[in-house]
Amino acid sequence: MSDFEFAEEFLPVYDVSDAVATVADADRESAWRALLDVDLLKLGREAPVVGMLGGLRMLPEVIGQLLHGERPAKPPESMRLRDLPSIPMYEGGWILLGERPRREIALGLVGRFWRPVIDFARITSADEFRAFDEPGFAKTVYDLSVRELGANRTLLSGLMRTATTDEHARRWFRRYWTFGVGSGAHILVGALLDSARRAAEGNRDG
């Protein structure tokens, strides 16, 4: 059984893919709980590079709101993986593609990520994500998993995969990826998994 069943299901064909992993000295249940409990906003505050990358992702939306005379929404006090599907994509939310409890959770986005203000597709479900094929867009899956390696040892891993819907989008996305977005995704997911590892190891005796 693959660690990344949802990535294979939703994006079996893709343009770019990257993976990152870490091993926790903790049981799988503890690692799974820790993964879901990572506060992404706290992570951004504690890790300057992660915070900067997250801020850069949201900056175009904030600028767009200001240009239209709107006040940017007040950020929530915390944001965890389970919270992301309840947030509109233009405010940093994601679509829940699927979850295998204590094994895997996958989230997706569809948009023109290379634009100064990201143009997100107006989709709200996994079925819509699967069927979406409008030209000019990119579809991204972040698939996170935990797998038991032995007594109190668990592999936490993440797979980031993106496919474009036509050649025009492919050209733009490859430029966007080449200018550092690929390494940014790697850093973000790596920091998320490392935070989960530390929390799982700290709670293993609790």
Summarize the structure in words.
The structure is a single chain. The protein is an alpha+beta fold. It is 42% helix and 25% strand. A hairpin with a 3-residue loop joins strand 2 (95-100) and strand 3 (104-112). It is globular. The protein starts with a helix and ends with a helix.
Tally the helices.
Answer: 6
Tell me the structural class.
alpha+beta
**Which residues form runs of ≥5 with pLDDT under 50?**
49-68
What's the mean pLDDT score? 81
Strand content: 15-25%
Order of helices and strands, N to C? HEHHHEEEHEEH
| Distance from first to last alpha carbon | 30 Å
**Helical content class:** 40-55%
Shape type: globular
From the alpha carbons, calculate the radius of gyration and give it in angstroms. 17 Å
Give a concise summary.
This protein has 206 residues and is of the alpha+beta class. Helix content is 42%, strand content 25%.
Which features characterize this protein?
6 helices; 206 residues; globular; 6 strands; alpha+beta; 25% strand; six-stranded antiparallel sheet
Question: How does the SSE layout of this entry go?
Answer:
Blueprint: H1 5-10, E1 16-24, H2 28-37, H3 40-46, H4 48-67, E2 95-100, E3 104-112, E4 119-120, H5 126-131, E5 138-150, E6 153-164, H6 167-203
